[in-house]
Amino acid sequence: MAYDRYVAICKPLRYTVLVNRTVCHVLVGASWGGGFLHGITVFALTIKLPFCGLNILDNFFCDVRQLAKLACANTYTVELLMFLNNGIVIVTCFVLLISYTVLLLKLQTHSTKAKKKITSTCVSHIVVVFVMFGPAIYIYVLPFQAVPVEKVVALFHTVIFPLTNPIIYTLCNKEIKSSMWKLVCKYLLQCRLFKKYFEVNK
């Protein structure tokens, strides 16, 4: 998405050449491949761990860090490798946001109308990235110790923020914003009429 927005705003006349079907396939394949490689790496690190005793996780979902704590062996190396693996993924995603920095710097040379368009296009994606990766950084930045309020952060990271993701993106759409505004106005009008009705009947 960062590459797509960069080309659409900085090189609009070459968009169809720079963002063709092949490029889209490569970008999607790289995203899927990176996710698969990350998952397989974490799986390979935890599959050989010896487990004994109570297998009760101190969380509401099966996180790799929680799983490593249940192992009966020394997990220092495993936790270090998981920390490096997660760190590489998170840092890579933030490095890819450099194209947004370029876009925001180019805002100075555009007109007010273009600035609004660029801002509405990019801000939603930047917000989603920070909202999704902020808790991930908080959880995985300290690999060898318990993180305060880890369960609360994990709840937001796995449940709350993914629910807000579509809302953040749809609020940038003019049609949806106008429809929501109409619904709110209609609701407020009904509330006022309802209130007046009760006041009259009293």
UniProtKB/TrEMBL annotation:
- Record-level Gene Ontology MF annotations: G protein-coupled receptor activity; olfactory receptor activity
**Known Pfam families for this protein?**
7tm_4
Q: How does it sit in the membrane?
A: Multi-pass membrane protein
User: Where does this polypeptide localize?
Assistant: Membrane
Kindly state which keywords UniProt assigns to this record, in alphabetical order. Answer: G-protein coupled receptor, Membrane, Receptor, Transducer, Transmembrane, Transmembrane helix
Q: What is its main location?
A: membrane
What the entry lists under PANTHER family is as follows:
OLFACTORY RECEPTOR
Q: What is this protein called?
A: G-protein coupled receptors family 1 profile domain-containing protein
Taxonomy-wise, where does this protein's organism fall, top ranks first?
Eukaryota, Metazoa, Chordata, Craniata, Vertebrata
